[in-house]
Amino acid sequence: MINHTMKQKGRPAEILLVEDNKGDVVLTKEAFKTSKIKNHISVANDGEMALQMLRREAPYEDASLPDIILLDLNLPKVDGREVLEAIKEDDELRRIPVIILTSSQADMDIIKSYDLHANAYIAKPMDLQSFERIVVALEHFWFEVVVYAGDH
Fold first, then answer.
1. What residue numbers bound the domain in which 86 lies?
2. CA distance 82 to 50
3. Which of 11, 18, 63, 143 is deepest in the core (most CB within 10 A)?
4. Residue 144 falls within a domain, yes or no?
5. What integer pLDDT is reported at residue 37 of this predicted model?
């Protein structure tokens, strides 16, 4: 889990981006390049791959557990809602913050995501400048403000 010792040791924040749209992957990575927090972004192109990476199943046995997950809802193979549900039902994964980062602004999607214990829901911005503002807000809140077990 994220903790302040991570920053002291200089370890990059491990971010898992679960996104099938290549343009959104590029946009997200570009936005995180301007981040004050050192980070490493792993990308899962579908829900099945995300779960394999999180569970460290072949061929991802050496994958690092992420400090935070950015999850799109509309994914091939395994839907983002199913990924979220699987994460929050898993004793090893449930405490990893999951931020829904999706194009949907439908009330039904927002409510369902929170019912499945998403930690936050963000509608994807369409331009890099707006994406960068979201990244700044995410890094400030999740990496500077939030207290995790072991922080005290």
1. 4-139
2. 11
3. 18
4. no
5. 79
% the chain with pLDDT above 90 = 61
List the CATH number of the domain containing 68. 3.40.50.2300
Secondary structure of residue 13 in the 3-state scheme: strand
Q: Does the residue 78 lie in any domain?
A: yes
Longest distance between any two alpha carbons in the chain, whole Å = 41
Beta strands in the chain (DSSP E): 13-18, 39-44, 68-71, 98-102, 120-123
Find, among 94, 99, 93, 95, the residue nearest to 147 by Cα: 95
Number of domain units in the chain: 1
- Burial, 2: exposed, middle or buried (Cβ in 10 Å; 0-12, 13-18, 19+)? buried
Asked if residue 4 has pLDDT above 60, the reply is no
| 3-state SS class at 71 | strand
Q: Are 47 and 76 in contact (CB under 8 A)?
A: yes
Residue whose structure tokens are 């331009």: 127
Q: What is the DSSP letter of 78?
A: S
Looking at the domain assignment, is residue 146 inside a domain?
Answer: no
* pLDDT computed for residue 9 by the predictor: 52
